[in-house]
Specification:
It is built from 10 helices and 15 strands. The protein has helices spanning 40-50, 66-76, 115-131, 150-160, 171-177, 189-196, 202-215, 254-267, 272-287, 297-306, and strands at 3-8, 12-18, 32-38, 54-62, 79-80, 83-85, 90-97, 102-107, 135-139, 164-168, 184-185, 220-224, 230-233, 238-242, 308-311.
């Protein structure tokens, strides 16, 4: 069994509400609502656990609402090595309008964390690495109080102990982390353009941009492009994955599912084409579920067969 740690420094309570014909400056009736333990790192850990891996999460949780996450960890078999900080973990509200096919996001500020808290995460990750880890997933934005170089330091810590690293963040933390040489990064096309300081339009420009990043020492760059699919680029090859059309239940965690799929594919030693099929299928599986969940494995296998692979 592959042992993986997910680092979640800015976890979130994900509240999803269904509001048909949602309107601004009006009274809206909620048709359905659910609350999930979330944030990118938590989601990646949840998907990896579903795929059969032994996963532990470290990072920060607010003491005031940690119980939601504790229940989730117990239900999914995820190890809990998170530090509890004063305050409440932030809430992200997603308003889903099934009639107009629109999604509105309201993201609240989160708890702040200083150098001492980061040192605590470093110690927790160090203990997990000493016990033996194959992969470390570093996912999400940074909370207030942590410097952009945070992920770069954690990457170096993991690499020194022989673990491979997948990184999913954006902005200054992503830029600062590239010099540490993560094995996998998964920006979307807008995030990759922002990283390089220019807008990217379409597959060809995304591939060219990804090649620039790979030349700097990153092993695999997977660029997600929404309904257009994704491009995957390594030093030796590049390709595009085109998903089939499916009915979307929720977009929550679809990008995080792709990260989990990329890690899962790497643990299985898949080639680039099969990696693209699997990661895309896991992402599609998440789109068909409400909350950070995946369908049965046979459904993911069916989706893999429907993913188109082409030259890029």
């Amino acid at each position: 069994m592959t042992r993986i740690a997910a680092v979640s420094l800015n976890s979130a309570v994900d509240q999803t509400v269904r509001v048909p014909r949602f309107a601004v400056d009006a009274v809206n009736r909620v048709e359905a609502s659910r609350v999930d333990a979330g944030g990118k790192g938590i989601n990646v850990a949840s998907f990896l656990a579903h795929l059969g891996h032994e996963v532990t999460v470290t990072g920060f949780l607010g003491r005031e609402n940690a119980a939601l996450f504790e229940r989730h960890f117990a239900q999914t078999g995820i190890g809990d090595a998170c530090l509890r900080l004063d305050g409440a973990t932030r809430t992200n509200v997603k308003i889903v309008d099934p009639v107009l096919d629109q999604v509105t996001d309201l993201n609240f500020p989160g708890i702040s964390a200083g150098p001492e808290a980061l040192e605590g995460v470093g110690r927790a990750l160090g203990a997990l690495l000493e016990a033996g880890l194959d992969w470390v997933a570093l996912c999400g934005s940074l909370p207030e109080g942590l410097p952009p170089e945070t992920y770069a330091g954690l990457i170096r810590q993991a690499r020194e102990k022989g673990a491979r690293v997948a990184l999913d963040t954006s902005g200054a933390p992503l830029a600062a982390a590239l010099s540490a040489g993560p094995d996998i990064i998964k920006p979307n096309i807008a995030e990759l353009g922002a990283l390089l300081g220019r807008p990217l339009a379409g597959r060809d420009e995304a591939v060219a941009a990804a090649r620039e990043i790979v030349a700097g020492g990153v092993g695999l760059v997977a660029v997600s492009m929404g309904a257009e699919g994704a491009v995957l680029v390594t030093r030796d090859a590049s390709l595009c994955a085109v998903p089939p059309g499916i009915e979307v239940a929720s977009t929550v965690g679809a990008g995080d599912a792709m990260v989990a799929g990329l890690i899962h594919a790497a643990t299985r030693g898949l080639d680039l084409a099969e990696t693209a099929r699997l990661a895309t299928a896991v992402s599609l599986g998440a789109l068909g579920e409400i909350g950070p969940h995946l369908p049965p494995i046979d459904r993911i296998e069916d989706l893999m067969a429907a993913v188109g692979i082409g030259a890029a």
